[in-house]
Structure formats: structure tokens, C-alpha cells
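Table S2 (text version). Query chain:
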Amino acid sequence: MKFRITQVALVVAGCMAPALGYATNGYFSHGYGMASKGMGGVGIALPQDAMAAATNPAGMAFVGNRLDVGLDVFMPRREIEMGGMKFSGDGRDTFYMPDFGYNRMIDPNLAIGVSVYGNGGMNTTYKTSPFGMPGDAGVDLTQLFISPSVAWKITPDHAVGVALNLAYQRFSAYGLQPFAMMSSDPSRLTNNGEDASSGWGLRIGWTGRVSDTVTLGATYQSKTKMGRFKEYSGLFADRGDFDIPANYGVGIAVKASPKLVVAADLQKIDYSGIGSVGNPMASPGPLGAPGGPGFGWRDMTVLKLGASYQYSNTLTLRGGVSTGRQPIPSSEVSFNILAPGVIQNHLTLGGTWQLGGGKEVSVGYMHAFKKTVSGPFMMGGTTDLRMHENSLGASFGWKF
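Corresponding C-alpha cell output:
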């Protein structure tokens, strides 16, 4: 059984790797699985499909035997303005983000499964360089997780779970020659093609039904220790280090009526714990040095609210919002021309149609509202970072 699950996961991962793109809470996705994405990203206390392990692995004990396959079409719009001139980072403006989940109840109290998904990413593609030189400029980061999971019901209403996050990431940068004078190794700063690294971490969680109407949940994901981007050791602090930050959260789901469920999650992402992401640009030393300059991102706390309404026996409707202070201080806009992850507020809509025979189709829409962050540019003047986003996706689920 485990061998077959791993084979399927690796095949799906191979198909997904070229397609993964972008995300919204900093560079993390606003949610995982189409049902969650339609409800503002909630899921810590409300498992709905076999993607539950991406948010809280304990939830896999409550979703039963099922298979889920989804595809999200993601459309970010990013722009900067400085000195009265506007530069579009939308040289690539559409990204395809697939996911896959499988869960199997070995007995009524034990579930094993696997969730495969894009953890997040970041992309800017400037056809006209904002750094005053000919040619394109930009970066591209993608992160893929393969997360086998185990969940146990320690009582009929309480479960604990653990997922092993096997992570793979890729990065490329080009057109960054103006930063060469700031780099510890200009030959490993830019235009070195695509580099990759891998690593692993853990996610643990608990889900408990504390009454007939209230379910609580809590989850923690460790820092995912990744190999270095050696080809970009003159760009990222600590000689190319780019670990994936720890994150954790709590959630509640309330069955307000026989047809209505309301849920909320509070999530914290520790961006400041990763030197290449959290170190301020003014950190001592050159780019790539131990403890050297980074993107200056602060930690992000995200509040997610969602509702699910069973409109009929065959149709469930969903909606949600999420909000959190974006991670880029105004003092750090210069370097974040490359990574303008300034989104704060999201609105989502979704639904699921039951097709019979345990089969269902879900859809989800997300709009991230335009946000502008302004601050001083290192070469003088003021820079404005702007971004807004849309995504539309669908998934197929099979309960067997």
C-alpha cells in the first residue's frame, strides 16, 4: 500500500514541478485543497478532503477513504513605480498550480495518506528592467511538498496526526548585475540558470470535537531545512541558504445549523527566522555572506474566516475572507522589487456538486485586493510596490 501511494505521489510530483507558480500570504498559499480555498483558506479544524494534511494532518482521520485531484489557475499582477516611471513584472502572468491527495482508512481509527502540493512561490518578470540596464530582470521561485501522513483517532472525537514534508524547490534570477558590487561572489549572483535544492520537515496536529457543534484544531510545522542554492550563493544570505519557515496555527469550526458551518483559523508564519528572507537589507556584510542582507520580511499573522452552506443534497456553497499584515516594511522596498509579496486581504467563493457514486466536483475563486507599499529606493527617490491577484480552480474528488 505505502509503495503504491509513493509511486502515485512521485508521478504527480513530476507532472507538477514545471507548473508551480505563486502564492499570496507572503509566498505561502492562502489555502490548500479546493474546498479550503473557497472558504478563505480555513482548514485547521475543518478537514474536508484528502488535502487536509497540508494544513493539519490530524484531519485525515475524519475525511475517510478518498482521492482528490485539483488545478488552480493563478493570475498575479505586480507593478512598481519610481521616478514617475512604471514597470510591469507581468512578463509571465499566468501560473498553473495542481495538487493531489489520497487517504485510506486502515481501520476505523487509523488513516494513512499523502498530499502533494505547491507550498508557495514567487515570480517577477520585468521585460523592461527597473535597474536601468538593457534586457529582462526578475526571479522565479517554486516549492513543492510531498507529504505522506499518518493520523490516529485516540478517541472517537479526537485525533492526532503527523506528516513528513519532503520538499523540493527551484530558483532562478536574471538581470541583477547592478547588485554585483554588493555581492560576496558576483559570479553566483545572477544569470546562472535554474538551481534546485531539497530537504524535509514535519507537520504535527490535533483535531477534536469538543461538542456536537464545535470542533477545535491546532497544528505546527517545523522549519524545513533545505540544501543551499549554490548557484546563487552570492545573492542569498548564508551562502545560498533558503530554508522554508516554520508556521503554526489554531482553528475552530462551528456547526451553526444543520446546513451551515462557520470556521476560523489564526496562522503565524515565521519569515524572520530565515536569514535570506528575514534579514534587513542593511544587515552587515555583502549579499551571500553569513548573516548578510536579505529581503527584510517580518513575520506574518493571518486570520482566515469561512462559511459553508449545504444549499441542497447535491450542492454546497462556500465563501470566505482572510487578512494579515503584509510582510514587507516600507524600509525594505528596494530589494523587494524582485519579490513584491505585499498582499493583505483576500475574498474567496466556492462550491461542490455531488455527482453520485461518491464523486464530486469542487470549484474555488480567490481575489486578492490591490495593495501598495511605498518606501525609499537605495539609489534615491521613492519606490511603490503594487500587487493584486486572482485565481480560479477546480478539483475532482472521489469517496470510495
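Notes on Table S2: The longest strand covers residues 137-155. Confidence is low (pLDDT under 50) at residues 1-11.
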